[in-house]
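Hi team, as promised in this morning's meeting, here are the two structures we talked about. I've kept the exact order from the run log so nobody has to guess. The first one is mostly here for context; it's the second one we should focus on when we meet again. Sequence first, then the predicted structure tokens.
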Amino acid sequence: MRNDVHSFITGLRAFFDAHSDVRPATVSAAAGLNKSAIRKMLTGDVASPRQDTAERIAAVLNLTVEQIIAQDFERRGSSQPTVAVAGLVGAGAIVDLCDAYPKGEGIFQVVCPPQISPRGVVAVEVKGDSMVPVYQPGTILFYSRDSICVPLEAIGRICVCEDEDGRAWVKQVKTGSEEGTFSLISVNPTSETMHGVRLKWAAPVRFSLPPEFVERA
């Protein structure tokens, strides 16, 4: 980032000073960085973030690198595409899948994160704490589903899925001990693993937004 390095870090520090509810560790994780990455920038342990790192941080904050340097923290939104949040997905809580909304509509709309295209994307809101600390209650998950099945790519990954009773879950999906069944794994060690579950479909989570970064349209 050459001569803009100091200005970017200064702007980043000003952003967190102005938004005390936003945690640097949460932003780091959402940007795909080590949770301590931004903290190290702010304390001077990392003096030169790469351009792509700065862009990823800015994207999570729904800003541009230039806005952070200029300390212009008016988040983008009005010109950005939106995605409908179709319903809730259970992370410990029991949630029935809701298909009551026409295509493109839902319980509310959120600004689509710049990291993904809104085309063919479905969004759901996490209810429950079985996936903490990966997904907090209120986190918005984005996924795409092309067919009604459990594709090979879903095995071993955290997915949004529907069981044969019509309940929607967010869990890590693993092959079950009996043919045609699956184990749904929780991240939270206090939550139980669900064994012998029959699924209608599963779709890997493509992107997630922590509650503090959800921007309703």
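And here is the second protein, the one for discussion:
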Amino acid sequence: MSRWRESGRAVPSWVVETLGVLPAWVTARLLVAVGWLLAHLIADAETPHALERGLLAWDGDWYRSLATHGYDGVPLEGVRFFPGYVLLGRAVDFILPGGVGTALVVVSNVGTLVAMVLLHRLVVLETGDRRVAGRAVWALALFPPAFVLAWAYAEGPFLALVIGCLLLLRRERWWWSGLLGLAAGLLRPTGALLAVAALCAVWRPSGRPDSLLGRVAAVGGGPLGASAYVAWASLHFEQAFLPITVQQDLRGDPIDPLRRLLRGFRDLFGPDGLSDGLHVVAVIGLAGLLVVLFRVWPLRYGVFAAACLLVALGAENLNSLERYSLNGVPIVLGVATLAGHRRLGGAIPLASGVALVALSAAAWLGNYVP
């Protein structure tokens, strides 16, 4: 940076922003490493676990197989994984050495770094307060299920696209927001839910002649991206809505989220108290964050985060619920708001970091489904 000053040129803003979020990004990865070491210390040699797969554990194994063999070269269950992340991994594999597994991990981690930079920009644009923006970045980095942002999971680039879409909606760049929404829909099915955030953003009238068509594009981008993959998979495998039906086979048929939540409360005091019951504890915390989000932040952030949580709750199987809630990334704005209170400012990052380590270790040990 001193060379930039000596030459009389200003340091590019993206460089400053990247350096600003780098401590949170690095800290989160160090905590994931602590989780891996903890899992190694606890692991029983006779109990199956995912430690040997490292950052390619769980869904990462599927993504590596898909990037290597394609959808026709893996079991039919693999069709539930959307293609955007696979295609990015293949593209980076052409550039970097180390194989497709390395490429997928790089895409995930670089995507997360971009997501943090964009989140900082979004919060500064909304509040004008860089301290709040910094807290939001740390909230994302330390969010307990965010250990998957260091793994070979699609969430890193997906969150970058989601936050980029929300940033463009805030700036009323309708066509570009629709394009990023379309890309998000190709990475994760929850990209379709960006439509609810876009609806809130485009509702205000505008006198621009191209405004109506652009607003339609902003709303339709996410659903179009997700629908395009579902249509392709349905035609390719000659089974209608195949990615959706395969996912239902694993997570169960759709169910009323309220009924599922009430049953989860009963599970707290039954034999499943340490599995499904604990997901309900997470839902209680997430619901509290939603209340803060709706009270303090613009409506579009709350409705998108709430939609992601409701979709996750609307299934028999609550595995991965916490990660699905992270897809509704504005939820971390609620964390950032709470962390701004003097009594909670130190406790929240500490508790989040400890939970991140615990969840990552549990995932590697096979006790938690990320």
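Starting points for discussion:
The chain has one domain: 18-365.
Residues 13-42 form the longest helix (30 residues).
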